[in-house]
Each structure stands twice: as C-alpha cells, then as structure tokens.
Design brief:
It holds the Pfam family BPD_transp_1. InterPro entries: MetI-like, MetI-like_sf. Its main location: membrane. With about 290 residues, this protein is mostly helical. The protein is about 75% helix and about 0% strand. The protein contains 15 helices and two strands. The protein has helices at about 1-45, 50-55, 70-80, 80-110, 120-130, 135-145, 155-160, 165-175, 180-190, 195-200, 205-220, 225-230, 240-245, 255-275, 275-285, and strands at about 245-250, 250. A two-stranded antiparallel sheet has the order 1-2.
C-alpha cells in the first residue's frame, strides 16, 4: 500500500519539478532581456566611440563586449562639468526626499486618521493629481515660478517634487492598516494628534516611508524637462541635462552620453537594490485598505 502511494506521488513530484524548472528558465530569460540594454550601455561607455555602432552590423560577441577597453569617455565627464551636475542632482534629490517625506507623511496621516469635512474630496483630487503627467503642466508652471523669482534657484528645482500624490497615496494606505485603537489609546493617554502621528504612526511605518522616499527620489533624479525649463544657468544644471548637452550642433559625443548614463543609473540602482525589500513591503501593504 505504501509503495503504491509513493509511486503515485513520484510523477506528481516530477511534474512539479519540471514546472519549476520551466518557470526558472523563463524568469532567467526575462532577466537577461531586461539586463541586456544596461549591459550594452556599460560596454559602450568602456570602448572607443567609433566602436559603439560599428559592432552592431553584423551582430557578434563584440556587440556586447568591448574589444578595446578605455576610460576616456568617463574622463570627458569632468571636462564637461558633469561633476557639478551630479552634485546638484544629489543635493536636489536629497532635500526633496527629506522635505517631501515630512509633507507627504503629514498629509497622509490627516487623510487616513483625522475626520474632517471634505476629506474624501481632498483624497480624490490628490489621486487625480498624480495621474496627470507632470510634463503636461511643466511649461505653465515654469512661467509662474519665473514670475515669483524662482528661476535658477535650488528652491525652484525642489518645490515641484516635494508634494507627490503617489507618495501620499502609499503612506495613507499604510496608515489605514494601523489599528485605530492605537491612536485612540494615545489620545486617552494625553497625546495630541501630532503626538499620535510622531510617536505611534511614524515608528510603525518604516517600510512605507522608505517606499515613499524611493518614489520621491526617482521622480526627482530622472527629471529632465523641469530642470531644463527652470534652471538654464550652467551652475544649476542637473545630471540628465548635462548628459543631453553632449549632443551639440556639431556632433554627438555618444561615448560621453553612455558614460554619463552609466554614472546616473548607478546611483538609483544601488539605492533601489539596497531598499528593495522595504519597497516591496510598502507596495504590498498599500493594497490592504483603500
């Protein structure tokens, strides 16, 4: 009897093993396809510019591997003022994350915990706001910023990124998952609403705060059109704008473009890899309550 049961289980285990093998192979193939453009960009940054497109036809192993390694492309980044642009990007992104988290978390707490007239309408407007592409309002918004004297300032670069509707939505969803009894207990113990927010909700919301911070960081780090409109001063240019300036009217420095792209991609990639677990937790928790 035991032998018969074991014999029946063996094909089932074999089928499960085969299914897992197929899924693993498909996942590995998908990963390679996603990594291939990143790999080609890195290889193109490490070879002479004339090899970049000369190896595309016919396709060979040298298409994805540099035949001659060189660091000249990265050396030209310093000559083009790319170091200052990277410093500006880091400063703008860091301030946006810190100030944006403070504003977005307070807004999310009010929308999740406080009961005030029009709360649902405010939340609906906020949801609609982050569905509108920022580039659609960038040009009229830049006119307003110039009128109030914010052109070529760090404040002008930072302000549009600190009130992110998606970050508020994420934090609000997480706050709704925190038992209401904790806030009521804090109120009974004499805490103000600020005390409940600071001592109860924030300490429990580390994954959501990290997820919202990543959203704010990526939004500001990859921004191109807004810095181009509001900060034409070379001293205030950011990394994406500096990369675009390698394409001029007399030619395109593809080597410099690829080198700059590698440097600007490495920063958010490392940040996302480091905080990936927390970001996944925050996205999973955002679906608990709406």
């Amino acid at each position: 009897m035991a032998f018969a049961v074991t014999a029946r289980r063996r094909p089932a285990r074999t089928a499960e093993t085969a299914r897992r093998g197929v899924l693993t192979a498909v996942g590995a193939a998908a990963a390679v396809l996603f990594l291939l453009p990143l790999w080609w960009m890195t290889a193109s940054a490490l070879r002479p510019q004339e090899e970049t497109f000369g190896t595309l036809s016919p396709v060979s192993v040298w298409t994805v591997l540099p035949r001659h390694l060189t660091a000249e492309n990265f050396g030209r980044l310093g000559e083009a003022g790319f170091t200052l642009a990277m410093a500006n990007s880091v400063l703008v992104a860091a301030v946006t994350v810190v100030v944006g988290l403070a504003i977005c978390s307070m807004a999310a707490f009010a929308l999740a915990v406080l009961d005030f007239p029009g709360r649902t309408a405010v939340f609906a407007v906020m949801v609609v706001s982050f569905l509108i592409p920022f580039d659609a309002i960038a040009i009229p918004l830049s006119s307003v910023f110039r009128d109030v004297g914010l052109q070529n300032t760090y404040a002008g670069l930072i302000l549009p990124g600190i009130g992110n509707g998606l970050a508020v939505f994420l934090l609000r969803s997480f706050f709704l998952g925190i038992p209401q009894e904790l806030a009521e207990a804090g109120r009974v113990d004499g805490l103000s609403w600020w005390g409940v927010f600071w001592r109860v909700h924030l300490p429990l919301s580390q994954p959501a705060l990290i997820g919202a911070g990543l959203i704010l960081f990526v939004f500001q780090w990859q921004s191109y059109m807004w810095p181009l409109l509001i900060a034409p001063d070379p001293a205030k240019k950011v990394a994406p704008v500096a990369i675009a300036q390698f394409a001029g009217e007399h030619g395109v420095d593809f080597g410099g473009i690829f080198a700059g792209a590698v440097v600007t991609t490495a920063a958010p990639l490392l940040v996302l890899l480091f905080f990936q677990r927390y970001f996944t937790q925050s996205l999973s928790a955002s679906g608990l309550k709406g």
